[in-house]
């Protein structure tokens, strides 16, 4: 299942869990309203790729609230001595990351059902309490590892508090279920009190929500770094482009030299007429050379990948996967039939600009960390480049209210459609369409279309 959510005012975050299959293919078709007149001249593909698409992969597991590395971590913590285990940081990060992903997934599942179950709330609270207690049972003796443990414990406590308070605020509790809301708030307060007792954060940070959020964002990065794959990028076709440039220059120069030689034979000695012909030939060379090279280059690279990535485990420094990526503008008529059906295109919609991103990857699960056979991919889409060409104006809308004509000022909004197709190695296909409502400054709403 693919999930798309708003990350901040101008960015979207697409997340997908990659199963045990080694090969995967992802296609993103972004339909941009035709009135914006977006094309390769306004927003070049490479510019959008470099500034608007950010991809990372981490280890993942289907075990939701029971981290796979749990037993290994506890045993290492219990036997910690004056000689610290060099893999302790990795084990602790794996433990914390699995817990964070699990509690976030549990929160989303509870909110998506629209119902409150005492059993589910009770299980969530019991498991969070058990996992945090196991983490806090043994603190490493080494001072460096102890500080790392404190940072992880600080973040997990804060994240647990935030998730429980979110559920208390958003879940539709019935009148006879208000005690569940009180329990969630009570456990959240207990985590807050725990951090105060441990003196994890200064009073200045505790009193400033912005500073606290920024600090926790940095601690989240601390957790994710050891389990996030290093991504090495290589742009394809660079050497081919140089050879094409040299070849076109040689052919055009040969043609111009031949024409100059013929002109010299016809016109005789160097005269004003010969100089005029030479100037026209050199001008024509400059006029056509770049156009010829560009058209040949587009023909050669059409349908071929533009970037190659290598994924490296930051712990073992082993290559554990590779991927190829495409980014092109596509005419509506060239879209696959299933994509057009998913878009539900009509005559007005065929004026839309379609930006197609493709990602083909092949992983090597045999080189993964012990206990892990799956990965999790996050793609951040920054819509800032598209928002820059949007009209910031507003207009008036009139309506009748109590027999009075009311004038309302309405901002101009645009609807982007994102069709996502995920193909696994076994041939299983997931096809989804999302509607993204935006204005010139921010993303207003993201919804999954039926």
UniProtKB/TrEMBL annotation:
Record flagged with keyword Transmembrane helix: yes
Keywords per UniProt: Membrane, Transmembrane, Transmembrane helix
Keyword hit for Transmembrane: yes
Regions crossing the membrane: 266-284
Protein name: Uncharacterized protein
């Amino acid at each position: 299942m693919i999930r798309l959510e708003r990350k901040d005012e101008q960015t979207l975050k697409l997340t997908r869990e990659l199963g045990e299959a080694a090969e995967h293919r992802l296609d993103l078709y972004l339909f941009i309203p035709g009135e914006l007149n977006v094309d390769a001249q306004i927003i070049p593909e490479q510019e959008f790729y470099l500034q608007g698409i950010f991809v990372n992969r981490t280890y993942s597991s289907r075990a939701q609230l029971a981290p796979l590395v749990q037993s290994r971590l506890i045993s290492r913590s219990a036997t910690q001595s004056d000689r610290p285990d060099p893999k302790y940081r990795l084990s602790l990060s794996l433990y914390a990351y699995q817990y964070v992903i699990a509690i976030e997934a549990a929160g989303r599942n509870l909110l998506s059902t629209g119902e409150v179950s005492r059993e589910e709330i009770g299980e969530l609270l019991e498991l969070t309490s058990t996992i945090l207690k196991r983490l806090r049972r043994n603190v490493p003796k080494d001072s460096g590892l102890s500080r790392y443990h404190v940072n992880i414990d600080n973040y997990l406590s804060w994240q647990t508090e935030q998730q429980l308070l979110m559920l208390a605020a958003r879940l539709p509790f019935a009148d006879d279920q208000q005690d569940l809301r009180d329990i969630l708030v009570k456990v959240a307060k207990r985590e807050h009190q725990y951090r105060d007792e441990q003196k994890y954060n200064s009073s200045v940070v505790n009193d400033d929500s912005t500073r606290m959020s920024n600090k926790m964002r940095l601690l989240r990065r601390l957790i994710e770094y050891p389990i996030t794959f290093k991504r090495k990028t290589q742009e394809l076709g660079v050497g081919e482009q140089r050879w094409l440039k040299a070849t076109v220059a040689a052919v055009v120069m040969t043609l111009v030299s031949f024409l100059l030689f013929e002109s010299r034979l016809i016109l005789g000695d160097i005269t004003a007429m010969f100089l005029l012909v030479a100037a026209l030939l050199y001008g024509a060379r400059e006029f056509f050379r770049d156009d010829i090279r560009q058209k040949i280059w587009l023909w050669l690279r059409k349908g071929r990948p533009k970037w190659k990535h290598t994924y490296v485990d930051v712990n073992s420094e082993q290559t554990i996967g590779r991927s190829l990526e495409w980014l092109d503008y596509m005419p509506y008529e060239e879209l696959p039939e299933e994509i057009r059906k998913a878009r539900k295109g009509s005559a007005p919609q065929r004026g839309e600009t379609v930006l197609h991103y493709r990602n083909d990857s092949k992983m090597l699960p045999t080189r993964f960390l012990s206990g892990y056979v799956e990965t999790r991919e996050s793609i951040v889409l920054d819509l800032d480049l598209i928002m820059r060409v949007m009209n910031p104006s507003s207009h008036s809308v009139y309506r009748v209210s109590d027999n009075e004509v009311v004038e309302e000022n309405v901002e101009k909004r645009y609807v982007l459609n994102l069709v996502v197709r995920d193909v696994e190695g076994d041939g299983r296909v997931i096809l989804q369409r999302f509607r993204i409502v935006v204005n010139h400054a921010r993303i207003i709403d993201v919804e999954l279309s039926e």
